[in-house]
Design goal:
The structure holds two protein chains of two kinds.
Chain A (H helix, E strand, L loop, with lengths): L5 E14 L3 E8 L3 E7 L18 E7 L5 E10 L2 H4 L2 H17 L7 H14 L5 H15 L21 E4 L4 E3 L1 H4 L6 E4 L1 H12 L2 H6 L4 H19 L5 H10 L1
Helix pairs in contact in A: 2-3, 2-4, 2-9, 3-4, 4-8
Chain B lengths: L2 H5 L3 H11 L6 H13 L2 H17 L1 E2 L6 E2 L5 H4 L7 E5 L4 H8 L5 E4 L18 H6 L7 E4 L5 H14 L5 E3 L16 H9 L5
Parallel strand pairs in B: 3-4, 3-5, 5-6
Antiparallel strand pairs in B: 1-2
Helix pairs in contact in B: 2-3
The chains are: A alpha+beta, B alpha/beta.
Chain lengths: ~250, ~200
C-alpha cells in the first residue's frame, strides 16, 4: 500500500459541522488550494488537541493527510485567532457573514489568492473597527470584483454608452447599471440606485480598507447599499446568505 | 439501497438491521452485530428493550418550566424545593444537565435551549427556548444566570446573544471559566484557551 500523502497548508476556517460521535468536518479557505474540506478527529472532545484551533474564523496552519473520501487534519497551529472578532457579538456575526460569502463564492478546489487575502484583511480590520456594517458593504463589493462578478458602474451594460452623473437603475441579471435609453427595453427586474450610492460603490471598487472605512456615510446611504448589494449577492449565489438575518438582528437590536 | 438488498437477509432481520443502521454512530456492520445479538437474546429481555423504547417515546415530555426532558411536569429538578431557586444554568442540550450534575458543584435550576444559534445553518434565536427563559426572569426571584453553552463559536454566539437580552434586567450573568483541561498538556492548548486560562489564574 502506498503511503498516504500529507500536505501542509494554511487557511481560514469558514465553517464546521459535527461528524459522528466526536469529530468535525471543517471547511478551510486556503490561498494555495482554494476551498477544502477535512475531518478533524476528536475535535469535539474537551481534551482535543485540535478542537480549539479549528473554530470558524480562525486562521490556522495545518498538516493534512489525504484520505479516500475526505482528508484528515493531523496537526494544527494558530496563525491568528481573531479573538476580538469572536468575542463580540456584532463583530462575530459580521465575520460569519463574510465567511459564508467566501464559502458561497468559491467552488471546491478553485484557487484564488486575492479572495483569501481579502478575507484575512477584512477579519483583521474587523477586530478593531466600529464600522462593521460599512466593512461588510465594502467586502461585498470587493468580493464580487475578485471573483469576477464585479458590477459595471461606468457604462450601460446594454448599449455600452458612458453613463452621465445621476440616479440610475441596476440590473442583477446583466451585472451592472442600465442607462436611461435601455431601461424601458430591459426585461430584467431593476433596482433604483441614487447617484451617491453609485459614487460610493465606484469608490469601493478601487479603495483600500482604510480609505473605504474612513468615508463618512449616512445610515440611509448604507441602507441603500445594503439593499442593492444583498439583492445582487443573492442573485449571484442563487440563495439568500443565511447568516445575513442574524447579522441584521444583532446590528439592529 | 437497503441492507436487505445487499445481504439478502430474511425480511424481519433485514428490517431490524436497517433500523439500527439509522442510529447515530452505527455503521452497517455494527447494525448487523446488534441485530444478531437480539436474535439470540431471551424473549423477556427483548420485550423489556422494546418496551423501554416505547416508554421513552410515549412518556417523555418537556418540562414546562426548564424544557428539560422529563416524565413528570414539572421535572424532578424544578420540583425539588431543596435546590437554589435563585440561580438558573442555561445549557444547550438535555445531556448537558447530567454532566453538570455529576460535578456536584451546582445546586441551582436549569434551562435547556434545545440547540444553539448557528447563523450559517440558518438557526436563529427564535428556534431555541429563549423566550421561555426570559419568562422565568419576570419575577425578582432569580439573581444569577450561568451561561453554560459549549465553548465553541456557536455556543459563544448564543451566550453573548442571551447576555445582551438579560443585561437590562440587572441580573448577574456568569459563565463557567475557560481553561486547561485536567490531564491535558499545556503545549497543545490553543491560544484562546491558554490566554483565558492565564487571565483567570488564581492565587495558589
Amino acid at each position: 500500500m502506498a503511503r498516504a500523502k500529507t500536505y501542509n497548508t494554511q487557511g481560514v476556517v469558514l465553517k464546521h459541522m459535527p461528524l459522528g460521535e466526536a469529530d468535525r468536518i471543517i471547511t478551510l479557505y486556503t490561498p494555495d488550494r482554494g476551498k477544502l474540506r477535512a475531518v478533524v478527529k476528536g475535535a469535539r472532545r474537551t481534551k482535543s488537541r485540535k478542537g480549539g484551533f479549528v473554530q470558524p474564523l480562525s486562521y490556522v496552519r495545518a498538516s493534512i493527510v489525504e484520505g479516500r473520501s475526505l482528508d484528515q487534519v493531523t496537526e494544527t497551529e494558530t496563525v491568528t485567532s481573531f479573538r476580538a472578532v469572536r468575542e463580540d457579538l456584532g463583530r462575530m456575526s459580521t465575520g460569519l457573514y463574510l465567511a459564508e460569502l467566501v464559502d458561497g463564492f468559491s467552488a471546491d478546489g478553485a484557487v484564488n489568492p486575492a479572495e483569501f487575502h481579502l478575507l484575512v484583511d477584512a477579519l483583521t480590520v474587523l477586530e478593531s473597527t466600529d464600522h462593521s456594517e460599512q466593512l461588510a458593504r465594502y467586502f461585498e463589493t470587493r468580493l464580487l470584483s475578485v471573483t469576477g462578478f464585479g458590477p459595471e458602474l461606468q457604462r450601460c451594460v446594454d448599449c455600452g454608452i458612458e453613463l452621465e452623473a445621476g440616479d440610475h437603475v441596476f440590473s442583477c441579471a446583466d451585472g451592472g447599471l442600465v442607462g436611461p435609453e435601455c431601461r424601458t427595453q430591459s426585461g430584467n427586474s431593476l433596482i433604483h440606485m441614487s447617484m451617491n450610492a453609485i459614487k460610493v460603490l465606484r469608490f469601493f471598487q478601487r479603495a483600500s480598507f482604510t480609505q473605504a472605512l474612513e468615508l463618512p456615510l449616512t445610515e440611509q446611504l448604507i441602507g441603500e447599499l445594503r439593499r442593492v448589494l444583498r439583492t445582487y449577492v443573492t442573485y449571484v449565489l442563487d440563495r439568500e446568505p443565511r447568516s445575513a438575518e442574524f447579522m441584521h438582528l444583532v446590528a439592529s437590536g | 439501497m437497503t441492507t436487505t438488498d445487499k445481504y439478502s437477509l430474511s425480511d424481519p432481520v433485514g428490517k431490524l438491521v436497517d433500523e439500527f443502521h439509522k442510529l447515530p454512530g452505527i455503521g452497517p456492520k455494527s447494525a448487523q452485530r446488534l441485530a444478531y445479538y437480539l436474535i439470540r437474546m431471551p424473549e423477556g429481555e427483548a420485550r423489556e428493550l422494546a418496551e423501554a423504547i416505547l416508554a421513552v417515546k410515549q412518556r417523555i415530555i418537556l418540562c414546562s418550566t426548564c424544557s428539560n426532558i422529563t416524565e413528570t411536569d414539572p421535572c424532578s429538578v424544578c420540583d425539588d424545593l431543596a435546590r437554589d431557586r435563585t440561580r438558573i444554568c442555561v445549557v444547550e442540550e438535555p445531556l448537558d444537565v447530567p454532566a453538570l450534575e455529576r460535578t456536584g458543584a451546582y445546586n441551582g435550576l436549569y434551562h435547556v435551549l434545545h440547540g444553539v444559534i448557528s447563523p450559517m445553518n440558518g438557526v436563529g434565536p427564535d428556534d431555541l427556548k429563549i423566550a421561555s427563559l426570559l419568562d422565568r426572569l419576570r419575577g425578582d426571584e432569580v439573581v444569577e444566570i450561568v451561561l453554560a453553552t459549549n465553548p465553541n463559536l456557536e455556543g459563544e454566539a448564543t451566550s453573548m446573544y442571551i447576555q445582551r437580552l438579560i443585561s437590562p434586567l440587572g441580573i448577574k450573568v456568569t459563565r463557567p471559566a475557560r481553561g486547561l483541561p485536567v490531564g491535558g498538556d499545556l503545549e497543545y492548548a490553543d491560544e484562546v484557551t491558554l490566554g483565558r486560562a492565564l487571565e483567570g489564574r488564581e492565587e495558589f
